[in-house]
Amino acid sequence: QGQLVESGGGLTQAGDSLSLSCASSGRTLTFRHMAWFRQAPGKEREILAGITWWDGSSSFYADSVKGRATISRENAKNTVSLQMSSLLPRDTAVYYCAATSYGSTLPLGQGSYDYWGQGTQVTVSS
Fold first, then answer.
1. Which residues are CB-neighbours of 121 under 8 A, at least 6 positions away?
2. Which residues touch 22 (CB under 8 Å, ≥6 apart)?
3. Minimum mean pLDDT among 7-16, 70-79, 84-93, 97-106: which range?
4. Which of 116, 122, 119, 120 is nearest to 24 (CA)?
5. How many CA atoms lie within 13 Å of 78's alpha carbon, on the beta-carbon side?
6. How far apart are alpha carbons 94 and 38 in whole angstroms?
7. 49: closest CA among 101, 3, 91?
8. If both were cysteines, with which of 12, 38, 82, 96 could 20 make a disulfide (CB 3.0 to 4.6 Å apart)?
9. Under a CB-based contact definition with an 8 Å cutoff, are residues 124 and 93 in contact?
10. Distances (CA, A) of 82 to 33, 39, 89
């Protein structure tokens, strides 16, 4: 079974940048797509960005982070990262890394992802 572990969360200020990393192990080579989601208090979990793990041929960014976020993968280190800039207080949430071994196209719904990290808290103060 593959495992995902996020790191890089914490307390930051509005306008700052943030880098999150997701390390995977186990069945890494069978992952087809990986993504970052977040869930703010009282809100549903939403996808922020996704990437086709194997060759990076497809990527997706939610409107809420488009232009402020970059998702990247480093196959040799079995990691996928999310860089965000110009952070806003509304970016405060628990951020999750997710992966799936299925699908020819990058899925956007959380139900399509089989593996999840435990989440890392990001708090942006004003």
1. 9, 10, 93, 94, 95
2. 4, 5, 6, 7, 34, 36, 79, 80, 81, 82, 97, 117
3. 70-79
4. 116
5. 13
6. 5
7. 91
8. 82
9. no
10. 14, 15, 18
Distances in Å between the Cα of 36 and the Cα atoms of 67, 79, 126 are 15, 12, 23
CA angle in degrees (0–180, nearest 5) for 121-63-14: 45
Which residue is listed with tokens 């996928």?
A: 80
What tens digit of pLDDT does each residue of 8-51 get?
999 999 999 999 999 987 655 568 899 999 999 999 999 999 99
Q: Which of 50, 100, 44 is nearest to 73 (CA)?
A: 50
For 1-119, strand residue ranges (E) read 3-7, 10-13, 18-25, 33-39, 46-52, 59-61, 69-74, 79-84, 93-100, 115-116
